Amino acid sequence: MVLWVFGYGSLVWNPGFDFDERVIGFIRDYRRVFDLACFDHRGTPQNPARTLTLEPKEGSICWGVAYCIHGGSERERAVLECLERRECEYDGKTIVDFYKDKDSIEPTLTGVLVFTSTLDKLLNKYYLGPAPLEEMASQIATASGPCGNNRDYLFRLENALFEIGHEDDMVIELANEVRNILGKKVRKGKKKQAVRPTTHLPFLSFISGVQVHPLADAAVATDSYEENGKIGMVKGESHGNSRAKKTSNLD
C-alpha cells in the first residue's frame, strides 16, 4: 500500500512526518494564492496570518513536492491524522495528477492527495479571499502567532521554491513588497540551475489505488529542517529501505 501527498506550501520545506520518497514536480490547472487565514499558528483571530491555498486556474501549473508513504494502512492513517491536525484550516482533500516533465501528456503519478479549501467566505471561515498586493504584504509583515511570524512563512516558501529550482513570480513579488515594508533588501528572482539526476526511483505499477508511471528523471532530494534551533539536513532515499524523517513545528 502507498500514499502520495503533494505539498505546495510549508510541506515543501517541512513535511513534519516520516516519508520514503520525495519527488519534485507539479500539478496542472491550479495556482498558489495567499487567500487563507491562519488564526493559531502564525496569526491570531485579531490579526490572522495569510497562508497558501490552491485556486483552480486552467492552464496554470503549481510546482511543489510529492511525498510517498508506504508500509501499510496504519502508517498511512498516522500520517493523515498528523496532516489533518496541522492543516486544520483546509476543509477539502483533492485527488490530482502529478507531473515531472512539462512536456509530458501522461502524468507521472495519479491519485495524489492534496489539501485544498472551499473558496467561499460564507462556507469557509478561513477563506479571506484576494486582496491588493500592498494590503496582503502589510498583513503578512505584521501578523504573528505561537509558531512564529507570518513573514517567515513567506520568506521560507520563497527560498524553498528557489531550492527546488522553480520560483513563483507571485511569491517573489509579495515577498519583495513585505521587504519594502520592513525596509529590507529586495530579492531578485533567479532560476536555480537544475541538476541532472543520477538515480531512478523504483516504482510498482499499481499499488493501493495509486497509478504510478515511470519517473524519467527522479532525483534524490535533500531538505532542511529545524530542531531545537539547529539546522539539519534530511535526505529522501530513492529506495524504500531507508526512511527520511522530518521534525516539524507546523510551518
Mean pLDDT reading = 80
End-to-end separation: 28 Å
| SS summary, helix count | 4
Physical arrangement of strands within the biggest beta sheet = 1-3-2
- What overall form do the CA principal axes indicate? globular
Poorly predicted segments: 191-243, 245-249
Structural class by secondary-structure content: alpha+beta
Strand content: 25-35%
SSE order, one letter for each helix or strand: EEEHEEHEEHHEEEE
DSSP helix fraction: 10-25%
Radius of gyration: 18 Å
Based on DSSP secondary structure assignment, what is the total number of beta strands?
11
Largest sheet: 3 strands, antiparallel
Mind explaining what this structure looks like?
The strands form five sheets. A three-stranded antiparallel beta sheet has the order 1-3-2. The chain has a two-stranded antiparallel ribbon with strand order 4-5. The chain has a two-stranded antiparallel ribbon with strand order 6-7. Helices cover 21% and strands 32% of the residues. The longest helix has 14 residues, at 73-86. The protein contains four helices and eleven strands; from the N terminus they run E-E-E-H-E-E-H-E-E-H-H-E-E-E-E. The radius of gyration is 18 Å and the shape is globular. Mean pLDDT is 80; it is low at 191-243 and 245-249. By secondary structure, it is of the alpha+beta class. Helix 2 crosses helix 4 and helix 3 (150-163) crosses helix 4 (169-182).
